[in-house]
Structure formats: C-alpha cells, structure tokens
Records
---
Amino acid sequence: MNIFVTGGAGYIGSICVEELLNAGHAVTVFDNLTEGHREAIDPRASFAEGDLMDVPTITNALAASKAEAVMHFAANALVGESMTNPVKYFRNNVTGGLHLLEAMVQTGVKKIVFSSTCATFGTPDRVPIDESLLQKPINPYGESKLMFEQMLRWFDEIHGITHVALRYFNAAGASQRFGEDHRIETHLIPNILKVALGQKESVSVFGTDYPTPDGTCIRDYIHILDLAQAHMLALTARSSAKYNLGTGGGTSVREVIAACEKVTGRPIRVIEEPRRPGDPARLIASSEKIHRELGWTPKFQSIEPIIESAWKWHLAHPTGYR
Ligand code: UDP
C-alpha cells in the first residue's frame, strides 16, 4: 500500500516507517522536524516537509503520495508540558489533527491509524485497562488525544473514513537503526541510560510512596517493534476500532532501574524525589481485544530485552541523531 505517515521522523513514527518499508509498503513521511530528526527518516521513504497547521500543504502532499492510508503520529506528547502550555496541545493535537482529516476528505483517503494513548483514561478505576473503561483524562495531553478519537467517529459516520486508534502504554526500546532521541528527554528509560553512559550524574525517582509493592509507579512497557506490528495489522482492519496496546505486565520504576543496571553492567545513581504531578500509580493494559480481533501478540514480554535494544542504540548513538 501507499502510506502517508505524519510524524515519521519522530521516535515511534520512524520505526513504524522502517517496518512498513521492510514489509514492502511505499511510504511518504510528512513532518515539520520540530520534534523529529531528518536523520531518523528512512532513506527509502519519500519526505514532504510540512506542518499540520497548513491545510493546502497537507492536501498537496497527501495527493502527491497517492496514499491509501494515513498513519498519524505527529503530536506533542509530554504530560508535564501540557499542564503548563495547554494551547500548544490543543492547537497541534486537535486543530492539527482536524486539518489532516480535512485534507483526507478533500483527497478521498479513507483509512487512518491514529497514535492514541493510555493517558486518555486518566487514573483508572481498575487495571488491567480494557477498552470498556471510561476515558477521563487528567491532563490536556490526554484530553487532546481523546478529542481526536471522538472526531474520528464522526468522520467515519459522515465521510466513511475508517479509523483504528491505538492507545499506547509505555513505548520503549529501539530497532537496530532508529531509536529514542527527544530534544527534551523526560522518559524514564533513556534518562537511566544517560546515567549509564556517564552523561547524567543520577536519575530521579518521582515518588516512593505510591500504593505499589515497592512504592514506585508501575507501567506497562511495550517494545517499539511490537507497536509497529500492531500498526501493520491495523491496516487490515475492515471497520473502525479502538485498541489498547501493552504487554499486560507491569514494571515499577525501581525494577526498571535494576534491569538497566543488569543490562548495562553499570551502577545507576538514584535520587528520590516527590511525586510528579499527573502520574497515576499503576497503568497496565489489557490487549485482549486486539489479540482477539487482529491476532496481535507482543513478542517482547519482559523488560530486559526491551532495555537491551535501547542500550545498543544509545551505545551506537551516544549523542542521539546529532
Ligand atoms: N519517572 C521517574 N524518573 C524519570 C522519568 C520518569 O521516576 O526521570 C517515572 C514517572 O514518574 C512514571 C514512570 O517513570 O511513573 C514512567 O514515566 P515516563 O515519563 O517514562 O512515561 P509516562 O508513564 O509518563 O508516559
């Protein structure tokens, strides 16, 4: 298929592009390079530099790509930043997304796979989180993603655009070629690996008084290659659907740090800090629905091989893409 990938120069987008190309699809990457990196664009893909604020540019690029489907990764994705700058999140994630849908209507593209998030659920009443749980975001980031999910329903009903929304839990790891390099790094695993590389003195543990066995937050870390496979399967969906994507297992912050020490063979200095606002204690996915309906099963079920792949990439790219 011809696939149009917004945000294809970013962390998750670049690796999905690589896997789409490996599977024989033709890809056009659409990215404004504010978060993404030119070096993260697979050279086998076409590249259209552009911004989701600009409908004619999206429409022209979409028409030129002859896309049969869109994968929409381009977004701002930092919970903390969204709490101080909601305008940025609603503008880029909601208005930008709406512009993309407008361009799809104009060019007649009828399928979209959307990067959504477990942040649309807020603090869940129970775990594992399945698709029947009420979505009650507790930050503008999660709200902006939920608003786009809700728009998708109407573009299906009114314009016949089929969607698959994939709510990622904690994406982690790397492919051999592409990895995680954010200009501002707030995520746990890359920050621990920076300590192992000697680029940071210590890693902060945000909150040690959560109601979990070791007092730190529990997350469901999912390998980026498993996420990419889910996107590929989403292209085969015949009707619109929303799926939660995780392994169904949980790892605490302290367990992630211990696993990083084991994988890297280097000690990690830790500083215990207060809780980070907006962090629920425990987020674990139930991915039964996508397993049942599309046959998706994550290959990486434990944290160590996920960290190993990230560590390999960071060792080979100690300064990221720069
Ligand atoms: N975390 C931490 N220190 C860091 C970064 C994150 O203790 O330097 C914690 C964070 O509070 C959360 C978990 O690690 O409980 C995962 O955070 P991350 O930012 O990687 O992903 P999120 O769950 O926010 O999407």
---
Amino acid sequence: DELGRLTDTINDMLGRLETLFQMQQRLVADVSHELRTPLTTIQGNLDLLRRGAADDPAMRVEALHAIGAETERMRRLVNDLLLLAQADAGLKLSLEPVELDTLLLDVYRQTSVMAGGVALRLGAEDQAMVQGDADRLRQLLLNLVVNALKYTPAGGEVTLGMQRNDGWVQVAVSDTGVGIAPDDLAHIFDRFYRADPSRARSGGFGLGLPIAQWIAQAHGGRIEVESELGKGSTFTVWLPEAGAEE
Ligand code: ADP
C-alpha cells in the first residue's frame, strides 16, 4: 500500500546516504593517512636541522633533499585530490580538436627518458583527431605509460599503439610487467586502491587510474584492461573519433 511504498523509498534513501557517508569517511581517512607520512618525514628532517645537521654540509643537503621530495609528493597528492573534487562537482572540460597521434608521440618522447632498463616502443599508429582537452588527455596517457613503466621490471617491454576503429580511436598501452590478479582487477579504478600493499613503495597514491578513467569518461570514452599476473597488462583507452558521426 501507500505507506509501504513510502517506507521502502525512505529506507532506500537512508541506505544510499549511509553508503555515501561511509565513502566520505573512508576518503578522509585515506587522505589523512597519505598526508601523515610526508609530514612526519618533513618534521623529522626539520628537527635534525635544528639539532645541528644544518652545520654539516652533507647532512644539510640530505635533509633538505628529503624535505623537498616530500613536499613535492604532497603537492602531487593535493593536485590529484583537487582534480577529483572538480570531477565530482561535474567539471565540464572545454573540448577542441586534438591530434591524438601527435599527443601520443609527445608522451612517448617525454616518458622514454624515464624508461630505464625497459624498452619503450611505439607500435602501429593511425592518425586520428578527437574532440578533447589536450592537457587532460596528455595526463591520461602519461598516467598509463608511467604505470606501465613502473610495474615492468628491467628487461621488459612497453608498447604504445593507436588505431581507428569504427568511429572510435583506441590507444593501447601494453606492458610485459608484473600483471594484475583477477581479484584486484575489479578495484584498480577505485580511489586509493593499490593492488599490492608492498608496492606502496613505488610511490603512487592509487589515484592515477581513477583520474585516467574520469578523463576518458569526460570525453565520452572509457578504459578497458586485460591483464595476467606475471605476464603483463594492456590498458586500452577508447575515445570517440572527431567527425566520425557525420
Ligand atoms: P598507483 O599510484 O599506485 O600506481 P594507480 O591508480 O595508477 O595508482 O594504479 C592503481 C594500482 O593498479 C596500482 O597500485 C597497481 O597495483 C595497479 N596497476 C596499475 N597499472 C598497472 C600496470 N601497468 N601493471 C600492473 N599493475 C598496475
């Protein structure tokens, strides 16, 4: 009856509020946790300097270096959080024609200097235009390529490729790295999720993929992942091709 339906609606609403509240609480806990580590390091090094390390050139350089690195880490975290907050608030990107193949080449050049012992290759590349925000698209590709390099041990390979496919542009970032376990695969786009806690040392916050996914979605696209533990991963970004609908 009427009252029963009203009760159901209210219960449903309360349930959703509860979930939102829990998500919010977890986010605050995660952010606080991530900020505490760099703050502790900065404080510790300031104490060292105050207690005399400032007079020893080598110790001074080391302490200042640590303070600088942790400050940079906090800056990145705050930037990432700000971007996600804007995404949540429904920020609309300003889209203009972007040559995606040129952008991918840029990202390739930018990341090849950090490849170390990993072979970074450019595979097949079609020319393609999308309606996009070039800075955000660069960030999306950078996040994927930097991850591929980060989770691929020396001697492995990372390949970037791009092809047009039936109104879509597909950018694929493939690596022969550590891969992702099936249980983790469902969560890697969750904020602050890191597949293996021991990899926290790799320095990431677990925000790179959520940001990449938001950017793809804000362009009307999506990201797909295929991965096998110990074999490697392929992240494929699908973006609507500009002018394809005409
Ligand atoms: P992080 O800053 O930890 O790299 P991301 O959001 O970019 O955060 O990625 C989330 C998690 O997904 C990573 O911690 C890692 O476990 C996993 N991951 C992402 N990309 C790869 C990849 N190319 N190979 C293996 N694991 C990956």
---
Amino acid sequence: MKTSAFYGKRFKLGVLGGGQLGRMLQQPAISLDIDVHFLDPAPDAPCSTLSTGFVVGDFNDYQTVMDFGKDKDMITIEIENVNVKALEDLEKQGVAVCPSPKHLHIIKDKGLQKQFYANNNIPSSNFTLIESKAALSPTNLPVVQKLRTGGYDGKGVQVLMNEHDLAQAFDGPCVLEALVDIEKELSVIVARNKSGEVAVYPTVELVFNPEANLVDFLLSPASITQEQENSAKELAMKVVEAMDFVGILAVEMFLDKTGNVLVNEVAPRTHNSGHQTIEANYTSQFEQHLRAILNLPLGDPSLRCPSAMINLLGEKGHAGPVVYEGMNEVLAMPKVYPHLYGKTSTKPFRKMGHVTVLGESIDEVKRNAKSLQSSIRVISE
Ligand code: ADP
C-alpha cells in the first residue's frame, strides 16, 4: 500500500476488541486522521463511548467478524483471542489484516509458541507438551504448567511443586515448562513494518502483584547491565525477524539468577508493559502500532526520561460501581499522568486504569510511584 493512500481519505481501521488498549489507540489515530471502529461483546466496553464507531458483537464468532470486517480498509486486534479463520477469509477477500492471522495462530497457542522458539534457536525455558493431566507424574516436578490456549494474566498458569499439587493440575493440552529461577521479569516492545524497518523500545522491568499475578508497576528503563540490555533487545529483534512479524510485538522475558535472558512469551499487540511510552518515550506504542501496520516510517522509540507505570487495579473486597479515591491528590502531584479506562464497575484486581510518573532518575520515579500507590484506591460505591 502506498502510504499516501489514506492521508485525508477517511481510512477505516477495524479493531477486534474495544478495551483500554483500543481506547489508547484512538488518541494517536485522531492525530493521524484514521477512523477507528471497534468490535467488542460488552456494550459498556472502554471504547463504547468513543464516537467514530463501536459495534457490540463477539470477536470469536466467525460471522460477526466477517460482517464487521467487510467494509474496513484494514483489521487489527487489541486481543489475540479472536476468530482467526474469519481473519484469514477477510484477507482472502482483499481486506488487509495486520498482524497476520498466521502469527495469531502461533501466538494464541503457548505450545506452538514454545516450538517456534525451539526451532529458531531463541533461548526460552525447556518444555514438553502434554495432552491431559494423566501424562503428569512426580518425575516432572517442580514444573510450570500452562494451558496451551485461553489463559491470560496468569490465569491458566500454575507452578506444581510437589505431589500434593498434582491434584490441582489443569486437565487438557498443556505446556510443561522448567521452573526458571527468576531475578527480574523484563519486557521489550518491538515494532516492525512491512518494509522491514524495526524499532526497539528500551527494556522495562516489571514488578508483579504476587496475589493477582498482574503487573503492579513497571520501571523504565530496567535496572540491568548494558550487556543484559543488549541481549534483551537483540532477542526481541530476533523473534520479530524470525517470525517475519509486522505490527507491535511485546516480548516478555526472564532475567535468570545466572544473568541469562530468556523469552517467556510474546503478545502480538500493544501491551500493558508499554503504557508508559505515551508520556515517557518519543513515540508511544499506540502510535507505533498504527505506523507499523500502515507501513509508515516508524517513530523514535527512545526515552524522553525515566518513568514508572502503576496499574490501578480494583481493590480486594470491592465489586460494583467504581470510585477512584485519592484522584485529586494524584492530580496535584507533579509529572504524574492518570489514565482511567472508562470501566463503570470495578472488581478485585480488575485493570481499571494506570498512572505514569516521570522523573529525572529511576530513584525519583520509584519514590514517587510508591507515594502515589499509597494515595489512590480503586473501590466500589
Ligand atoms: P500469561 O500469559 O497468563 O500472562 P505467563 O506465561 O506470562 O502467563 O506466566 C505468568 C507468570 O508466571 C509470569 O509472569 C511468571 O511470573 C510466571 N512464570 C511463567 N513461566 C515461568 C517459568 N517457566 N518459570 C518461572 N516462572 C514462570
């Protein structure tokens, strides 16, 4: 496609999913003059209040995706759990689809992903595939068991340490992974366009909420050695090139206690580990996604300054209409940028928004992120 094809032409981009990632994609789409239309099953999804177009429907249903896609110039995703067959058929009918359905097919299945890493000499933990719980035995332990499909945010992943844990094992097609002795969890976002141009974001460090298995907060840049930073970036580039992937790929990695960097898994879309790029990098991951899928020149991914991104998760014990307690205190802090996702009701650990904190140094952003975390609470009425 010639890049001039859509400037000023009411280019219609269809997005499968209408959650917070779509909402944040809308902002640079306005600046680049792209009409974005969202498909989501929830009538009150975060994108439902955006004016360009919102269709209520199931992105896993073949006919719904076909109907949604047929009059669009291009279809992209903000969630990978979609009807890939419909995307393949839309492509055959001449609708551009990016990322490619062939990549979604691999990435949706943690087993195929692991095989891809093994076949392409991409360092990742050792693994075996099993069809059901019956194939598990004490000799496999300790092990990380992951459902091949359908899991997200740590649901569908569990560590089986001893024979007693075997009773809780998932029963279905699973990946069994060697337990990595993790020093830090890292993420590198990488973008690639159809012309083969690649832009790699600096590595970020993720700090998980152990109870929710969700990212509590993130620090950018990661506090790792230059050598580890180079390995992480090289690895992300290797994955994107080996897949011949076009779009944004979030490469989640482990730094193990011996200093090795391993790929955990990838997401073929904008990612929670890149939200801080909206304020802290020259080009946000959302604008970069648009540039990559439309084969435009990629933007500069480098840092404007150090930052922290704090997820606003629904407080434990609260479910119902949402209240953001402490927002005025947060807004009164300098160099702090809240993003509320427009979800009307909260539940424990639901991702309701995030706040980015900028600073001169990692120590400063860490300090301010801690004080911010104790100022704000997402509760119900
Ligand atoms: P999801 O796709 O649901 O986010 P992940 O595969 O990223 O699941 O795993 C969730 C978390 O489980 C990781 O962030 C990490 O903390 C832990 N984990 C996953 N795989 C391993 C492993 N091989 N060794 C140790 N911990 C792991």
